[in-house]
Write a structure and sequence with these properties.
Layout lengths: L4 H58 L9 H8 L4 H5 L16 E5 L4 E4 L9 E6 L2 E8 L7 H52 L14 H49 L7 H28 L8 E3 L1 H18 L3 E6 L5 E3 L1 H18 L5 E9 L2 E8 L33 H11 L3 E6 L5 E8 L1 H5 L1
Parallel strand pairs: 6-8
Antiparallel strand pairs: 1-2, 1-4, 3-4, 5-7, 8-9, 9-11, 10-11
Helix pairs in contact: 1-4, 4-5, 5-6, 6-9, 7-8, 8-9
The protein binds adenosine-5'-diphosphate and magnesium ion (MG).
The site of magnesium ion (MG) has 5 residues, from helix 8.
Length: about 450
């Protein structure tokens, strides 16, 4: 069965109210038996003490209990604690005996044989000794008042039951009102969120929920709006990425197709030069596809990273050594300032890929005869790697977007040596997966300065 939140709220509130009423009824009953009957017992005990005094006086005068044998009149006179004058006037309310105490008293002689009074004495009945001249001459038994009389008990219960019914109905009505009000307060915004989620799930990323309160529901609405915004943004990124990818693939493919058709039609002959041109288009395609693959791998995030303790300066030295020849061929001078750095938590293969991409950019885009400077040191407990070159660098209007996918400086759009603009996006993914930061700025040498900060081992592990 599917119950709405309002029904559930109503049932819970009613259940709580009924439980409270029942608990109050039970506690009232307990305090009645404990309190009122306890009071009656105390009253009788005080009364029995006064009877003991009168019994002792009577025994002293009479010399034995014989005067009480089969003499209820004398017994009742002894039990009466009013003065002789009071006995002639009608009894006051305070003197009315609620607990029928005179029916619960029994006099026993020194050998505990019943002299007069109630003969049904339970075994645990307390006995008061009657002492005359230091000798116990008898016992007064007071049978405890166990329960109120049955009639009073039943009346009390009935009154309580009627009262509980009234309170019960009142609470059901109050609970219904409270449930109605609460469900209006809770369910209405929830319904709005449900409808919006439904729209979002069916692809409408423009839905937003008005935030009307500062409570959890308000927080949920805000989060929902943020989620919708993020989804819309991602969707837009995905579309432009797909457009860029297909554009990048189409260009070399159509060049290839055109050249192959020209050869087929006999417009061009199959010379080594034509072959080299075809080769170059294939190389561009190959590079693009492998960059896309790298990007998707680095995008997956920490899952595809195998983190170990890595010395950044060593990784940098290894990569530089591999690039030495390539940089020399381009006529570039290399300056290094690599000091032993603190170990970081990293994936050595990915870090190598990071430095490869950056040095490859220097080799590609730095003017012949220029300088490449590579530095590595520890700053504020972080490893700081700086790779810079002597120019021409990146125009200031492109610099802030240089890490975005497919972003290239206009000057290098020339396909002969430029890539698709994915390398720095891959670099950013790698650095961020290591908990670090990457930034691009104008280098003092005149070209582009890429600085990378990687947190040290200890900071990542906490
Ligand atoms: N050291 C550099 N000097 C000048 N321009 C650079 C340098 N590094 C990168 N760039 C510019 O940034 C663009 C993006 O670089 P990158 O993301 O590595 O893509 P790709 O190298 O595949 O074009 C490059 O196309 C280039 O225009
Ligand atoms: Mg590159």
């Amino acid at each position: 069965m599917r119950w709405s939140i309002s029904t559930k709220l109503f049932l819970v509130l009613v259940a709580i109210s009924i439980a409270t009423v029942a608990a109050m009824g039970v506690s009232a009953r307990i305090s009645f038996t404990r309190g009122f009957i306890g009071y009656l017992n105390e009253q009788s005990a005080a009364y029995a003490d006064s009877v003991v005094v009168r019994l002792a006086e009577a025994y002293k005068t009479e010399g034995s209990w014989r005067f009480l044998h089969h003499n209820p009149r004398a017994w009742y006179r002894l039990l009466d604690n009013r003065s002789r004058r009071e006995r002639d006037s009608p009894p006051q309310f305070s003197e009315v005996d609620f607990s029928a105490v005179h029916l619960r008293l029994t006099l026993l002689d020194a050998d505990k044989e019943v002299v007069i009074g109630n003969r049904n004495i339970p075994s645990d009945t307390p006995m008061r000794p009657v002492n005359v001249d230091g000798r116990t001459v008898g016992w007064l038994a007071l049978i405890p008042y166990q329960q109120a009389t049955a009639a009073a008990d039943v009346r009390f219960q009935q009154r309580q039951l009627t009262q509980n019914w009234l309170i019960g109905w009142a609470t059901v009505i109050v609970a219904a009102l409270a449930a109605w009000w609460l469900s209006r307060l809770l369910v209405t915004p929830l319904k709005r969120i449900t409808a919006a989620t439904h729209n979002l799930a069916s692809g409408d990323y423009s839905v937003r929920i008005p935030v009307t309160s500062k409570d959890e529901i308000g927080g949920l609405s805000e989060d929902f709006n943020r989620l919708a915004q993020a989804l819309a943004h991602n969707e837009q990124l995905r579309r432009s990425f797909m457009a860029d990818v297909s554009h990048e693939l189409r260009t070399p493919l159509s060049v290839l197709k055109g050249e192959l058709e020209a050869i087929e039609d006999g417009v061009r002959s199959m010379t080594p030069a034509t072959l080299a041109s075809l080769q170059s288009e294939v190389t561009t395609l190959n590079k693009l596809v492998s960059d896309l693959y790298d990007l998707s791998l680095s995008d997956i995030g920490a899952l595809s990273y195998r983190m170990t303790e890595v010395e950044i300066d060593e990784v940098l030295q290894t990569t530089l050594a591999a690039f030495q020849q390539r940089l020399a061929d381009r006529g570039l001078k290399v300056q290094t300032d690599i000091t032993p750095s603190v170990p970081v938590n990293g994936d050595e293969g990915r870090l190598q890929q990071l430095f490869n991409n950056l040095l490859e950019n220097c080799a590609r885009y730095t003017q012949t005869g220029g300088t490449v400077r590579v530095g590595c040191r520890t700053v504020n407990g972080e490893v700081l790697v700086e790779i810079e070159d002597s120019g021409p660098g990146v125009p200031a209007d492109i610099l802030p977007r240089i890490f975005e996918r497919f972003v290239r400086a206009e000057a290098s759009r020339n396909r002969s040596h430029g890539g698709a603009g994915l390398g720095l996006a891959i670099c950013q993914n790698i650095v961020e997966a290591h908990g670090g930061k990457i930034a691009a700025s104008a280098a003092p040498l005149g070209g582009l300065l890429i600085s990378i900060r990687l947190p040290r081992l200890r900071d990542l592990q906490v």
